[in-house]
Design goal:
The protein is an alpha+beta fold. 17% of the residues lie in helices and 43% in strands.
Length: 151
């Protein structure tokens, strides 16, 4: 059974998107510049704006955080990212992450928006980036969706 936490008053799940963008045998990662997970590597993504579709948000966040243009291939999965306080007694944030897979079309990664760094990483080099287990799972599921090729 899942652990039940007391939420911060008024806390609601926040819809957000992630975009697994492939260029050949490389995946685009960003180093987060703001909380949550500041300093950690992840796929580009962020909150869905009011009136914006999830697909549009995924491509917008990809462009804002990396400067890269891509074509969406499909939906990979929906993941709950639930954060608690240091004591483990209070639910502080809850994101519902809608993760898409995309194929790179143009542009070299340049960190923008709330990313400190952006770069294409060889799939064989991912172990050196200390990614969240769910992020690794999503990248692998996305790779399978595109058939192991991304061009």
């Amino acid at each position: 059974m899942d652990k039940v936490l007391v939420p911060v008053e008024g806390l609601r799940p926040v819809p957000a998107v992630g975009c697994v963008c492939f260029r050949g045998d490389e995946v685009l990662l960003i180093q987060r510049g703001t909380a949550p997970m500041a300093g950690q590597w992840s796929i580009p993504g962020g909150r869905i704006e009011p009136g914006e579709t999830a697909k549009t948000a995924a491509l917008r966040e990809l462009r804002e955080e990396t400067g890269v243009q891509a074509e969406l291939v499909g939906l990979v999965d929906v993941v709950d990212a639930i954060f608690e306080n240091r004591e483990g007694s209070l639910l502080t944030r809850h994101y519902v992450l809608i993760d898409y897979v995309a194929r790179w079309q143009e542009g070299e990664p340049v960190a923008g928006d709330d990313a400190d760094e952006a770069r294409f990483i060889g799939l064989s080099d991912l172990a050196g980036y200390d990614l969240w287990g769910e992020t690794l799972r999503i990248i692998e599921a996305a790779r399978v969706m595109v058939g192991g090729e991304s061009d």
